Amino acid sequence: MNESIDCPKCKIEMKPQLVEGIEVDRCPGCQGIWFDMLEHEDLKKMPGSESLDNAVSGKDSSDVVKDCPRCHTRLSPTHDAEQPHIVYDKCSSCYGVFFDAGEFADLKELTLKERLKAWVG
């Protein structure tokens, strides 16, 4: 089990949550989710894992400066390669990522346009 961490957005203690054998951290305030290295990629492939992120997308926090809750490195806004409208925060040191409420569920749901683009190449 990981040590407790504070939300990079709200600065309150995140609560561990076990999903399909993977422990992620969720903020009880903003409902944001912290994934340690590659956890979001593993969960993205699992059917039904979007239920982890059942919160409604909150206020845009792109202007909020965030530091990694694990190693305290400045997080960088990162666009998802397949869905560029999704911008999450990534640590360049430990490779953890922070998704605002609703972003992980959105990541799992490709739009028709995105599916066609992926299919056509």
Order of strands side by side in the largest beta sheet? 1-2-3-6-5-4
Structural class: alpha+beta
Rg, please? 14 Å
- Overall strand count: 6
Poorly predicted regions are none
Distance between the termini: 40 Å
What is the mean pLDDT?
Answer: 87
Secondary-structure element sequence? Answer: EEEHEEEHH
Number of structural units classed as domains: 1
- Morphology call: globular
Secondary structure tally, helices: 3
Strand content: 15-25%
Largest sheet: 6 strands, antiparallel
Helix-residue proportion: 10-25%
Keywords:
121 residues, six-stranded antiparallel sheet, 3 helices, 6 strands, globular
Q: Care to describe what's here?
A:
This protein is α+β, with helices and mostly antiparallel strands and 121 residues long. It has one domain (15-120). The chain contains 3 helices and 6 strands. The protein has helices at 39-44, 103-108, 112-120; strands at 15-19, 22-26, 33-35, 76-79, 87-90, 97-99. Strands 1-2-3-6-5-4 form a 6-stranded antiparallel sheet. The radius of gyration is 14 Å and the shape is globular.
